[in-house]
């Protein structure tokens, strides 16, 4: 299975730190799967102009293609102005409307204040649903106080990320089995 | 009926056509891809087979990206004009946005003369947009380019000498666009896909409409046709003068099951390569339902589907895409025969105005 972890901001370090641990957890527990980390800060991505993703070039093509090829995606996002960053929204805008069909998607969010706790629920899940993702319902919410010097300092966060990884992979495995069984029912 | 100027007589029943996008995709059963040259020659051959089977129309599309081979679609059409005698031919579609309408008109007038008055233009604006950068245009002007260039194409069609000024092409002063087509005029259609907004624009312009119908319930496409006719009527055009055509995926075999089985890999793999996403099996399975526009099935199922669509749409032409995704010419031969021998006679019988009426 192809798993992509996406760090959805081009500034700051908290989301990347959390995603780094996510990758580590994935690799330890699921060594047979391919894990690709995409940190948007590492790429020069253009704004969506509505074209089919195959018509983009360079970094934009690489990132969209990587997401399109994934079976499971773990999204990491900071909260900016009570919403997801524009850089992450742009990724969704670059993709076809049903780009996340047959993909399992889960989320972790980092934020400066606990007041943002419901932002992924209200801003990110509706987008994932519209794009036909199989969404892992519970997500990990990590606050500023859980980080120091680009490290996670609250052990509870590790446990929660481990559970997110496990939930994601359980759903991805299950979904793949269901999909195979359903596809077998068709005689074409 | 004044659809006559579009060379269509609705009394003779629904026209049946075949179209190709000029895709050049490996055969998913063998993994092998024929050469560009063979593919182009087979498209010309398919047009000849269509003519022999009595099919009304054959058209070739323009796409400027990988896995396509009829970028110079007007050149392929010229070869088809020469290789055939009676079948109507056209483009499906010409991406007018990134071409010079003067040059397009010169080409298609010439093809019309070669074909002795059988040529039509279906002008679209591309769903894939590789052509924009390749041909020196900006995708930012996607809408404006199409509208301006389509209008100019129509102006040239109506007038041999034109005076014109626009944003995306040098002005034309007392410009004579020749040669003129055989009848002095070409049927020019607007290619429409996606949400009903485009159909409304075609209606407002009073131009015949070609509607792409990839899959899904026929009733949702009826909505586009209804708003098209309504927009035409609201803007001083008589919808009875304006033909409507639909285009969609097609496969026929002895049984619906076999028709679905044999074509699914072609469509699924072909769409992955040309569109970046396959055709979900669940949707494809629903396509067998009579109410779905996907014309895949046994001859009888297809006849019923097309007649159902005709009842809903009241359209004048249906064109079938049956070569997509590396279907072999041998397979196409058989299917073209079934269309000519079984499907078309039934469709004409039920959609034409009988003598006694």
From TrEMBL, chain A:
Keywords of the record: Flavoprotein, FMN, Oxidoreductase
Keyword Flavoprotein part of the UniProt annotation: yes
Recorded superkingdom: Bacteria
Gene3D superfamilies, A to Z: 3.40.50.360
Annotated Pfam families: FMN_red
The keyword Flavoprotein belongs to this UniProt entry's keyword annotation: yes
Domain (NADPH-dependent FMN reductase-like): residue spans on this chain: 1-144
Gene Ontology MF, one: oxidoreductase activity
PANTHER family on file: FMN REDUCTASE (NADPH)
Protein name: NAD(P)H-dependent oxidoreductase
Naturally occurring in which organism (per UniProt): Allobacillus salarius
């Amino acid at each position: 299975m192809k798993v992509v972890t996406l760090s959805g901001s081009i500034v700051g370090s908290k989301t990347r730190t959390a995603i780094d641990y996510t990758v580590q957890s994935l690799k330890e527990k699921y060594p047979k799967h391919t894990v690709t980390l995409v940190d948007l800060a590492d790429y020069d991505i253009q704004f969506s102009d509505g074209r089919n993703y195959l018509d983009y070039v360079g970094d934009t093509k690489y990132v969209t293609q990587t997401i399109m090829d994934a079976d499971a995606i773990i999204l990491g996002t900071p909260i900016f102005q009570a919403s997801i960053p524009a850089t992450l929204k742009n990724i969704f805008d670059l993709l076809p409307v049903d780009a996340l069909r047959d993909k399992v998607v889960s989320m972790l969010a980092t934020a400066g204040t606990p007041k943002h706790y419901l932002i992924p629920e209200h801003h990110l899940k509706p987008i994932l649903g519209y794009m036909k993702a199989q969404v892992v319902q519970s997500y990990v919410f990590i606050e500023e106080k859980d980080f120091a010097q680009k490290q996670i300092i609250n052990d509870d966060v590790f446990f929660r990320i481990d559970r997110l990884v496990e939930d994601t992979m359980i759903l991805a495995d299950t979904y793949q089995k269901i999909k195979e069984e359903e596809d077998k029912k068709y005689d074409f | 009926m004044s659809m006559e100027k579009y060379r269509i007589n609705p009394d003779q029943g629904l026209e049946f056509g075949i179209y190709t996008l000029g895709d050049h995709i490996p055969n998913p059963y063998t993994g092998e891809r024929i050469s560009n040259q063979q593919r182009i020659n087979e498209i010309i051959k398919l047009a000849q087979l269509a003519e022999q089977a009595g099919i009304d129309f054959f058209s070739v599309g323009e796409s400027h990206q990988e896995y396509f081979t009829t970028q110079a679609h007007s050149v392929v059409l010229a070869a088809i004009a020469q290789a055939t005698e009676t079948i109507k031919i056209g483009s499906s579609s010409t991406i007018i946005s990134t071409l010079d309408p003067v040059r397009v008109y010169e080409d298609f007038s010439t093809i019309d003369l070669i074909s002795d008055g059988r040529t039509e233009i279906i002008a679209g604006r591309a769903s894939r947009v590789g052509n924009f950068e390749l041909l020196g245009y900006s995708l930012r002007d996607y809408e404006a380019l199409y509208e301006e260039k389509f209008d100019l194409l129509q102006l040239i069609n109506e007038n041999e000498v034109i005076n014109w000024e626009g944003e995306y092409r040098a002005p034309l002063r007392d410009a004579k666009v020749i040669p003129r087509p055989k009848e002095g005029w070409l049927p020019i259609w607007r290619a429409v896909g996606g949400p009903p907004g485009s159909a409304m624009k075609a209606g407002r312009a009073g131009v015949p409409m070609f509607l792409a119908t990839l899959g899904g319930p026929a009733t949702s496409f009826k909505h586009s046709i209804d708003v098209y006719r309504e927009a035409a009527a609201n803007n001083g055009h008589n919808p009875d003068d304006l033909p409507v055509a639909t285009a969609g995926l097609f496969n026929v075999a002895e049984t619906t099951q076999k028709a679905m089985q044999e074509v699914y890999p072609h469509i699924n793999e072909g769409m992955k390569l040309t569109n970046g996403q396959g055709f979900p099996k669940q949707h494809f399975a629903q396509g067998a339902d009579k109410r779905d526009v996907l014309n895949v099935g046994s001859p009888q199922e297809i006849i019923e589907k097309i007649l159902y669509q005709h009842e809903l749409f009241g359209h004048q032409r249906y064109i079938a895409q049956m070569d997509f995704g590396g279907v072999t010419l041998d397979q196409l031969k058989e299917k073209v025969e079934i269309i000519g021998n079984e499907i078309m006679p039934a469709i004409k019988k039920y959609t034409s105005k009988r003598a006694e009426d």
